[in-house]
Amino acid sequence: MDEIIPRRADAIIIGAGVVGTSIAHHLAARGLTDLVVLERNRIAQGASGDGAGGFRQQFSTAINVQMTQLSLPYFLDAPHRLGAEIELRQQGYLFLLTTEAQVAEFRTNLAMQRGLGAPVRWLEREEVAALVPGLRTDDLLGATYCSDDGWARPPLVATAFARRAEALGARIFEGCPVTGIATNGGAVTGVTTRHGAIDAPIVIDAAGPWAAEVAALAGLALPAEPVCRQVFRTAPFAGVAAGAPLAIDVASGLWFRPHEGGFWWGKSDDAEPPGLIKHLDPDWARHTADLARDRVPPFAGARVVGGWSGFYTMTPDAHGLIGGFPHLRGFYCATGFSGHGFQHSPATGLLLAEIILDGRATTLDIHPLRPTRFAEGEPIVERYVV
Ligand SMILES: Cc1cc2nc3c(=O)[nH]c(=O)nc-3n(C[C@H](O)[C@H](O)[C@H](O)COP(=O)(O)OP(=O)(O)OC[C@H]3O[C@@H](n4cnc5c(N)ncnc54)[C@H](O)[C@@H]3O)c2cc1C
Q1: In the listed set 267, 288, 314, which residue is the last one of a domain according to the structure?
Q2: CATH code of the domain covering residue 180
Q3: pLDDT at position 3, please?
Q4: 128 exposed, middle or buried (CB, 10 Å; 0-12, 13-18, 19+)?
Q5: Measured in angstroms, how far is the CA atom of residue 46 from the centroid of ligand 1?
Q6: Distance, CA 17 to ligand 1 centroid (Å)?
Q7: Closest by alpha carbon to 361, among 369, 13, 353?
Q8: Among 69, 298, 309, 372, which is 20 to 30 Å from 232 by CA?
Q9: H or E segment to which residue 54 belongs
Q10: Beta bridge partners of 358
């Protein structure tokens, strides 16, 4: 390892998840090719290995809608844009609404989303029943649906970004934890690793759930916390429409989608404390399975065969933190996506490369996502974290 790790580079990225590899690809594509990515584990085995891979244009803030829209072409045209198959399923997202308050809120969201060009539609109860066979619809007041939404496999996207970055000259070292960040006179000057020090004028923290720990090495406090999230799955069962969308029961917070003849389902547990311990809770599995049975009666015949957990990286307003820091030149972060980091990873790489190389993001103004917004009293709240 000592012989091949360089002593200096133009930029260092810490973390080779889907966000770090996207940044590497975009910086290299812009000509910054003396680039090193340091990953303490393996590519895409952090949150990117645990993600459900969903992407949607149905958010409550314009910036989140636009971040997905900017990312969408990478997913839809992955063979060309990424040089890889990514197990894309464009089967839509469906938000099920059962109260008048939800109807009012989602009609407002729908107008905003459509104003940005997202093909989101209002569905009446009968249309929902036709779209998702087996769904209990008696209490529905309507739904919003976007057929452009869908899902893919995050590790395939991360690996594709990594290979593209390497083809352009970037170097990615796995099994190489960053243990320190060097600064001098208000500027970052490099990192230390278990295998030696590397000097660089640009250091990017893309360490996902560990990003606050990494930022602390530079003396910065990032408002981003890891929170464990659980997903469960069933064996194939009769009554699942393989082409159904991912559905979210807004009242209960339950989400579910078809997967290989069965279901994946989950729900964010608001009582889960922040922390870096993964767990699968049988009581939570039972509680959410009850919700699923109530919403999809054929689910009662399904056999639960497993599940997994991983970390969302939550910020106080459930939006990503992308950008630099006025008091530490050359240090940038891209994290805190609050469960949306896969779908926003292509846009994040593109826009952070613009911030680093051009001084600001021009393809899309992401000033609202700057990491200093909380200190400046300008949070922007996303209402729908699934
Ligand atoms: C259950 C679950 C479901 C999800 N569903 C979705 C979804 O449907 N849609 C969506 O958009 N998002 C979803 N997400 C979120 C999404 O997976 C993440 O936002 C995204 O993968 C974050 O990518 P990342 O590259 O920032 O982090 P990671 O993939 O965690 O990468 C960070 C990397 O940094 C490395 N690292 C940490 N510290 C150091 C160090 N000191 N030195 C070197 N390397 C270090 C880690 O090993 C890790 O590989 C989900 C997440 C979970 C857990």
Answers
A1: 314
A2: 3.50.50.60
A3: 54
A4: buried
A5: 5
A6: 6
A7: 353
A8: 69
A9: strand 54-55
A10: none
211 CA → ligand 1 middle, Å: 10
Same domain, 207 and 331: yes
Within 10 Å of residue 358's Cβ, how many Cβ atoms?
Answer: 10
Task: Tell me the per-residue pLDDT of 335-377, one tens digit each, with 9 for 90 and over.
Answer: 999 999 999 999 999 999 999 999 999 999 999 999 999 999 9
Q: How far apart are CA 235 and CA 222, in angstroms?
A: 40
Q: Is the CB of 178 under 6 A from ligand 1?
A: yes
Rounded Cα gap, residues 274 and 141, in angstroms: 35
State which of 284, 314, 344 marks the end of a domain.
314
Atom of ligand 1 nearest to the CA of 206: 26
Pocket test for ligand 1, best of 213, 312, 382 (most atoms within 8 A of CB): 312
Q: Which two tokens stand for residue 163?
A: 């290979």
Asked if 239 and 348 sit in the same domain, the reply is no
The answer to whether residues 107 and 27 belong to one domain is no
- Rounded Cα distance between 306 and 363, Å, is 42
- The token duo for 205 is 């923290």
Q: Domain span at residue 305?
A: 93-147+226-314
Are 256 and 324 within one domain?
Answer: no
Ligand 1 within 6 A of CB of 210: yes
Q: Which amino acid is at 212?
A: A
Residue 268, beta-bridge partner list = none
Q: Would you say the CB of residue 205 lies under 6 angstroms from ligand 1?
A: no
Amino acid letter, residue 92: G
Distance from Cα 108 to the centre of ligand 1, integer Å: 31
Does the CB atom of residue 321 touch ligand 1 within 6 A? no
- Model pLDDT for residues 293-339, shown as the tens digit of each residue: 999 999 999 999 999 999 999 999 999 999 999 999 999 999 999 99
